[in-house]
Amino acid sequence: MKTLTTLLLAITPALLWAEPPRLPNPLEEIGVDKYGKRAADALRLYAPVVAEARLSTAQVFSKEGNKRLAMATVVSDQGYLITKASEVVGSKELVVTLAKSPLAPGGLRMNAKVVDTYRPYDLALLKVEVSGLRPVVFSKDEAVLGTFLAATGLEDTPITYGVVSVKTRNLDDANKGFLGVGLKSSEAGLEIESVSERSAAFDAGLKAKDIVLKLNGTMVASVEEFIRTVGSCKPTEKIQIRIKRANEEKDIDAILRRRGDVPDAMRRFEDPRNLMSGALSEHRTGFPAALQHDLFLKPFECGGPLVNLDGHVVGINIAHSGRTESLAIPSATVVTLLKDVGDGKFFHPETEELEKSKSNLEAEIKRLDALETRLKKDLEDIAKKLEGIIGK
Amino acid sequence: MKILVRPRFSIWLLASAVASLPSLPAEESLAGLKEREQRVQTLVAKVQPAVVCITNKAMAGTGSGIIINKEGLILTAAHVTQATGKELDIIFPDGKHVKGTALGANRGSDAGLAKIDVPGEYPFAEMGDSNLLKLGDWCVALGHPGGFKLERKPPVRLGRVWQRDPEGGIFTDCTLIGGDSGGPLFDLDGKVIGIHSSINASAEHNRHIALDTLRGDWDDLMASKVWGELRMSGTDPNRPKLGLTLDREKLTGGAPILAVVPDSKAEKLGLKEGDVITKFDGVNIPNYFAVMRELSDRKAGDVIKIELKRGDETLAHEIELLPGKAKVAARPPEPKADPKAEPGDQPKEEPKKPRTMPAEQPVRPRAYCGAELDGTAEEALITEVAQDSPAAQGGLKPNDIVTELDGKPIRTSLNLAEALRRHKPGDKVSFTIKRGAEVLTLEVTLSKK
User: Mean pLDDT across the stretch A246-252?
Assistant: First the structure.
């Protein structure tokens, strides 16, 4: 018997010693400078890789105090750049600098203002009053697992380098479909073990001991497959589950909830050791599409281009999210969000999804209303009959 | 003071003079990087399916492992199987579970073996030769950082070897975190050259056990022998305790006290929540991890000097260390003692029984609940429920994790023990617990017993 407890797993203390042996001789640590991912010998190899994209890379400072806040990426020749919103919005006045280039031999320093933000990806759109900047060229190809990467800065060599760790996925846990059942695989098939209160499963009438036969018309082989399929659906999406209850098969429709509706206590546990090696980005999770890589970025090094060995921009670095991980918004997503950049604003792709959810829910309400009317009528008929019998 | 069983086959050459560390040759170019990228992509596709998550039913912790033959033999870290116990739940990257068994472990070197119990043909990686490793060699780390996550495969991390140590350690800048323990380090041919073991504050400081350290121990590991002493693990059952809960998240300026075990020596000394430990036997303490490291070098019964900050005040105390396996008893002793007994009298302890905390001297009739807690777990985990006890009647079960008591958050066993201590027999308390994926609220009426 296996009971899948995905939520519990995430809060389990994951094992790794945090207290290593002392090195035989502290001097030996000198190897770090030589072999770390900011070591000059390796960065040198990446110089041709960042040559193009660095000309479209900028650095964002606060005017007051001249503090480095984030990197930015030029996205239009009309003076628009994108950057990491949460790092810059707190500062009243912003300054942007660009690398030295044939266009600006001395480098460029310009005032910038935030004209729009897009929360799901923590992006801000900056406007500078300079035209003719060189917009970055986004790659159409998705970076596959194991692709070598570099983060461009303003210099000839990149800030640091690394590799694609996990292919693009949805990190917006709150925005995944959630049914609310505990499942186990038994001899009869996938058996519902428990149904959470106030969940989509509860409202749909699923019960413990029901055997799941099909999900949206397809056989489900394992608990994992069931969870993966449900998780890939959107909240408010309707799913159909064929179950067997006391030797009777029936279809049950459930309208998924947001996973965000689960109590706080079940939220992801963060290993405190993630904070051992330097600050993480304040805003570092929940991105609806993110490419995970192992570049060890500082929070103020996010917002700039991420390139592959062909020098193509595969994403925009958006967070340093843990000791082992940073996240980038894949280029395909960024391109979609920039559909309306000429108007000085982000395009909101979720409006389409919300429209769809809305019509889904409206249809469901209609169906339930019709059902209510019918049932009320049945009830009236029965009451009348009853009255007739008693009346006699 | 530190008794240390050395790994038996530790014949590592130290990195020689710093000046001779090789750097990338000048003729290295982008073409070289592209070739490496190709090799990394090929190796990841080949070996990623063999990188398993190792845990157990109680989820006492999750680590990683690498399958090294088609029958399902697994290399892992000693401290992984020492934490999970013998019966293992092995999870494949695609979410498939199989049962496994822990084999031998050398706690000194931190190498361990395990096997899958279900016969089958499993994906596996070949073992390489870590003796051939040179400083500057490129490598790839895989594992299950943060525990098993269905929505992602074991993340890929790239790095180079920058150091070796005489105890069989390989240091790389492949970043690791909790959950990676026992996972594999590969050379670019996709052969296993190391097992993830520990990290330190710097992002480059990731220590792996060299594979060749393990070869000398092979027969003993296969024979399920367990030997050696853990030197530093957070799961080290022998590491003595202070009787304090410390803040792990603050990294500089000392180790702040979050809670003091009721009736412990620490409480009797007057230590309080908010005090910050700054020195331990004269050694400066920047954070929690430093305290743990110092504790690992000592044993129960040692008396140590600690220095603390309380506001602007500096306090110095001598404190006796408690046995590591000391459990926090949620159930107070049965009040058999004569009520007229002197306040200083301690109920007699049975010989050999580990000392329990809080010290067994009830100051007033305590409420009885009947749930045993795991004092070593990171959360308030119930391990046993006494038959017909208030806990049993209220519906509490082993493996429940208590998250709230009467609506107030509970983070550790200590929190819970302390919160329960404030109650008297007859009080009705509400437990909010996690049971698997469910969250339940249960009413328990405490009794006198």
Answer: 91
